[in-house]
Amino acid sequence: xxxxxxxxxxxxxxxxxxxxxxxxxxxxxxxxxxxxxxxxxxxxxxxxxxxxxxxxxxxxxxxxxxxxxxxxxxxxxxxxxxxxxxxxxxxxxxxxxxxxxxxxxxxxxxxxxxxxxxxxxxxxxxxxxxxxxxxxxxxxxxxxxxxxxxxxxxxxxxxxxxxxxxxxxxxxxxxxxxxxxxxxxxxxxxxxxxxxxxxxxxxxxxxxxxxxxxxxx
Length: 217
Prior knowledge:
- This protein has eight helices and 14 strands.
- The chain has helices at 3-17, 34-45, 62-73, 90-101, 118-129, 146-157, 174-185, 202-213; strands at 22-23, 30-31, 50-51, 58-59, 78-79, 86-87, 106-107, 114-115, 134-135, 142-143, 162-163, 170-171, 190-191, 198-199.
- It is α+β, with helices and mostly antiparallel strands.
- It has a two-stranded antiparallel sheet with strand order 1-2. A two-stranded antiparallel ribbon has the order 3-4.
- It starts with a helix and ends with a helix.
């Protein structure tokens, strides 16, 4: 058996056995793959070996650099063969396909709540465990979700990396920029199937549905 095949087999066996033989000597977090441990250690060291030569932004994993390049180029290479919606990341396309199939393959064994994305399940499990693995190196505040950690760091640095191409207004969060763009475009993508009223935010549609049904979530 070739060396690469043997190593893949060993890693695959770890998935079945639950074995996580690679341990971080700083925080004792364990991993099934050595590569996972190497990437994790960069959170402690602050190392970001992958740099984009256009904007000089640095990343600790290569896939984040590739995704960032797509933001600059506007390229969305992963396309849904059902509705033709395109994505910058293959994992986002995979999760999107669950919308069409209704499949929720990732299930919490505490509440039996199911998710379309593995990352959503991991974050949900942290509600039970209380784990907050992402720590701010400025004020030591901890976060369960990596993206919340990133947004928090923008508060310290004053950085607003997401900018409207219409009015140049800057934002710390990409989701807020997307909502802001709808003010310019007039887009209302969230529609009530009962009365056809449309909204710019998903949360507004949910609130509207609760008013119609009398539900108090």
